[in-house]
Amino acid sequence: MAEHYGNTPRITYEFPDCSMPMAFDTYNNCSFGCMYCFAQNQRGIGSKKKEYLHKEVKDVSVERIKRMFIDPDKHGGDFAPYIKARKVMQWGSMSDQFDNFERKYGTTLELLRFFKDIDYPLCFSTKGAWFTKDERYMDLIRGQKNWNFKFSIITSDAEKARVIERGVESPQARLEAIERIANAGAGGATLRLRPFIIGVSTPTYLDLIKEAFNRGATALSTEFFCLETRSPTLRELLPTISKMAGFDILAFYKKYSVQSGYLRLNRKVKEPFFRNMKELCDQLGMRFYVSDAHFKELCHNGSCCGLPPTWNYSRGQMCEALNICKRKGYVRWSDIKLDAENLLRARLEKAMNLGTREKYSKYYTMSAADYMKWCWNNPQAAHSPYKMFEGAMLPADERDSEGNIVYKYNGAKF
What angle do CA 75, 76, 80 make, to 5 degrees? Predict the structure, then answer.
């Protein structure tokens, strides 16, 4: 590939409640064709639609990434404080670093050698399994205590998975990959039961969790499927997803969502499933995490992707605040201020699409950290602790010494 992919690493759009806001991809495209994929539904529109859907691919410049991490003050840009603090980097955000493009080009492998040399902490998100049978990769992974692997499996039903997760190895193959990673003495394996789709995930989800635990997974991270009705790519695929689920997914989401456009099921629909998963994880001794905005307070600690509490992830985010609030009964801006202000220095427009002129004029001078603090003190803002978690944290009748709102806990008790 003569031309390289430049927009990585990037600050994830989910930075307000993300423990790993530095998100990285090896490739600008993914060989997998999962029908629910939010990246596919975002990229499969506009001027880039043709090259994305035709699987045209570029890889990242290995030399550029090496320069960033070897000399972050000179080459790290907005990520210099993140790299210098050795915060865990999320690898596999909009594309899968262990897909079939990697089998062909091997850019991830080249980067893994570098990151092992500098002993940098990483968290991988993948549907790949083949690399756990390839000694070139496993020789690097064995004993690497600061590399954590999340394996996405939405169902143990092989046929449903084959139809919906096009081009992906079977659920059984991914469970076997969990076992190989768990036995490699690295930083652990997590079952990523995301997205959780009623009718697709529900018939097998508890057995899937048990089997992942038996294979060595130490954590479960889950999130319900959200339906972007404005995506023409997803609309074309919904009839097939509905067939696999056994009912009309679009009609169901319209009935049980409070929003329009981007449909997210309400808390009451989700509650029994989260309750069952939490109870099972407690019985098994697995750490439980919810990346969904609803019931995020059930997370074992402030990294909803499932990183253990001892890992060096960013504490400057709302999930961490919610976890503190649950533990202490209240939380202050000062509890998350340090990482937020140190790590999120980039201009807000680099992390979020400011869209309208009104939004741009309101936010263009803000850094991502400024925006976080503004949301903290404006409870009706979309990313405020109150709105984001739908009342799991409430503004208390007090302010701190700097005039910032103090929040009190009001979340789920189970």
Answer: 140
